[in-house]
Amino acid sequence: MPINSVNQNTKTAPSPDKVFNPKSQLDKDAFLKLFIKQLEMQDPTDPMDTDKMLEQTASLTTLEMNNNMQTTLNKLASQLSQSQELNTISAIGKMADTGERYLNVTDEDKSKSFELYFGDDISSGDVVIKDKSGNIVKTFPLEAHTKGILSFDWDLTDNNGNRVPSDTYEVKARFTSPDGIQHQTALGAYPIESIRFENGEAYAKLGSNYVPFSKIKEIYEWQG
């Protein structure tokens, strides 16, 4: 008698009496199909107990409520994220203060570059660098210049030409605008020129650098 070979890898079509869920997650639609199929396949002489039916119906209701709640939470999270981004973008043009007033000088440093923001035109003034005790170690005279961000390069010598020791140094500037009004500014305070988003985190362009928004201590309008 000939024997017909059977290919063990042959895929059979799914039976219409079975409920398939490829993602292996019992969502509300799959639950409802399963429940209906259970009713169809029950023994007419021994129908499902009423209490059990109510229990399964309650489970379906709970599943539906959980799905609706999750959808609502997802929408709320999306709306909050968009609102935060809009609030962040609205900071463009305002002043941001990182609170970082000091330059850190180490033995390996040959010089230190820094930037200061001047919110008014400069008639005259000085950039003043002090040590932690408040003593002036270096002064840069300011010449007439239009308002904006100015860059400076400190060779790490004091006013006597001596190399300063490794330490932290405070940087501030005092200047007079053409109308004769006295102003001051300091390291760490710059206008926010633009906002960039990376991996859900906002970065503000302060001077020539992008700084994480979380490092900004204060945002305010320039008062001069």
Describe the structure.
24% of the residues lie in helices and 33% in strands. The protein is built from two helices and twelve strands. α1 (28-41) runs antiparallel to α2 (50-89). Mean pLDDT is 80; it is low at 1-12.
Short description:
The protein has 224 residues and is of the alpha+beta class. Helices cover 24% and strands 33% of the residues. The strands form three sheets. A five-stranded antiparallel β-sheet has the order 11-10-9-1-12.
Q: Structural class of the secondary elements?
A: alpha+beta
Terminal CA distance? 104 Å
Oligomeric form: single chain
The number of helices is 2
Low-confidence stretches: 1-12
How big is the Rg? Answer: 35 Å
> What is the mean predicted local confidence, pLDDT?
80
Backbone shape:
elongated
Number of strands: 12
The fold-level CATH name of the domain at 100-189 is Immunoglobulin-like
Helix content bin: 10-25%
Biggest sheet: strand arrangement: 11-10-9-1-12
CATH class term of the domain at 100-189: Mainly Beta
Please identify, by name, the CATH architecture of the domain at 100-189: Sandwich
Q: What is the chain-wise order of helices and strands?
A: HHEEEEEEEEEEEE
Report the β-strand fraction as a percent range. Answer: 25-35%
Describe the biggest sheet?
A: 5 strands, antiparallel
Descriptive tags:
single chain, 224 residues, alpha+beta, five-stranded antiparallel beta sheet, 12 strands, 33% strand, disordered N terminus
